[in-house]
Amino acid sequence: MIGKLKRIILVGFSVLLMPISCSQKKIEVVRVYPAPNNIDLSAVFKVTVENQNVPVYNTRIPPSKPIPRLNPIRGEFGLASIASFDMDESVTISVESPEQVESVKILPTSYNIKPTISGNKITFQLEHPGHVTVEINGEWHESLHILANLFEVDRPDPKNPDVIYFGPGIHEVSQITVKDNQTVYLAGGAYIRCVLPEQEEEIEVRGHLRKKPTFILDGTNVAIKGRGIIDQSAIPKKERRYTILAHKAKNVTIEGVTIFDPSHWTIPIQSSDNVHVDNIKIIGWRGNADGVDITSSRDVLVENCFMRTFDDAVVIKSFGGYGEVNNVHTRKCVVWNELAHSLSIGAEVHENISNVLFEDCDVIHDVGRETALRVYHCDDAVISNVTFDNIRIEEARRLISCWIGKTRWTETEERGHIKNVMFKNITATSAPIDTTLTGFQDGTDWKPYIIKNHASINLIGFDDDHLVEDIVFENVVLDGKAIDSTQITSNAFVKNITVNK
């Protein structure tokens, strides 16, 4: 009996101790990575998350004025501020500005963030990981981007011989080719400074020799991931090269890293299968600094990304002899369109493209010369079964376009076909109408022009044999009102338009 009583007392005592022991364990809610030494940080903003200081980086962006923006070779640029961390649950973020805060806008609006203002400081709650832009006192151009990541899972072992590991600190990298079963891992606090190789090498891409990208994923089960930064600013303008190229690869993962100042297409995915691009952050300002270019590839998922790119953000293309495009899905991305298209197909379409879905994305700025949501066909293949669903556009100039024709990018004599395209649950707010741009108006001449038909919707076929057909608009809302057929411009080579069925 006495022994039994001792056991009961011991068990009870242990139970009483359990919550005390658990409460003493520190639960990590947020993870901040220190900046490497010798990196110039922003002097504009101070950012804290859960009372921890977050490094704020600088990176170049295009200039704000419309016409110089389109010729960045002159050297004009602005500077954006970038703060990044990992989070596991709701966090409190504070931002200090160098001036008294009179007004603040936090984008995307769909996040429904309500900041509080006190002097030169704003505070707000971020309920889940995501990428927000903070604009203070109407300064939209040189704004603050806060990139909040999920906590990492399955971080690779640095001792694994198949892991190319970069720890915290600055690393100079000229070129790395990733082969079967290899992973490049950039730990939080790693800063890759891309440099030119001592001896230039080339790779054949679509029948052309190109300078080797900084990273090439060329094999099966290949990856580049982590929370580090890749900076291509040291690559001269004339020496431009891709940042991360997936080339004839299978089972590809590109996840988590942040890319500053890409010197050309940032992440081209070419002739590859089963590709996952997740939580990539891209801020670029040079000509042709696209975000993710999906060409002649299949089974591609792009999600949870932030892209402020000078040229196309997410774009799908196909080239003759390199395979069709099928089953491409882009979702939960935040896009800032500086020049060209936010979410698009084209211009080069030499082989069929089908089963494409863009959904649940926010376009927080659309300040360029082209169309935010576009199917842009300059060659001879068939584009079919394309859906744009649940897209929120906060500043629309040219809103929607399906277009077949000839441009400077055309390489085929024959024209193509566009069919079965749906625009569903699209909300957009018109941008100011008095905007002067320089570009290929109607796909022909490079010249200045005024956008007169702002937030336009255009459907243009080529001839009786090359149609734009079976186009559906369902719950497309512009400036708070559902569109009707009078707001859609089309020509004689467009068939079967359905509006709000």
TrEMBL record:
Record has Repeat as a keyword: yes
InterPro entries: Glyco_hydro_28 (IPR000743), PbH1 (IPR006626), Pectin_lyas_fold (IPR012334), Pectin_lyase_fold/virulence (IPR011050)
Residues annotated as transmembrane: none
Sorted UniProt keywords: Carbohydrate metabolism, Glycoprotein, Glycosidase, Hydrolase, Polysaccharide degradation, Repeat
Superkingdom as given in the UniProt entry: Bacteria
Molecular function GO terms recorded: polygalacturonase activity
Swiss-Prot/TrEMBL GO biological process terms: polysaccharide catabolic process
Pfam families: Glyco_hydro_28
Stated family: Belongs to the glycosyl hydrolase 28 family.
Role, per record: Pectinolytic enzyme involved in the degradation of xylogalacturonan (xga), a galacturonan backbone heavily substituted with xylose, and which is one important component of the hairy regions of pectin. Activity requires a galacturonic acid backbone substituted with xylose.
Protein's UniProt name: Endo-polygalacturonase
Organism taxonomic ancestry: Bacteria, Pseudomonadati, Bacteroidota, Flavobacteriia, Flavobacteriales
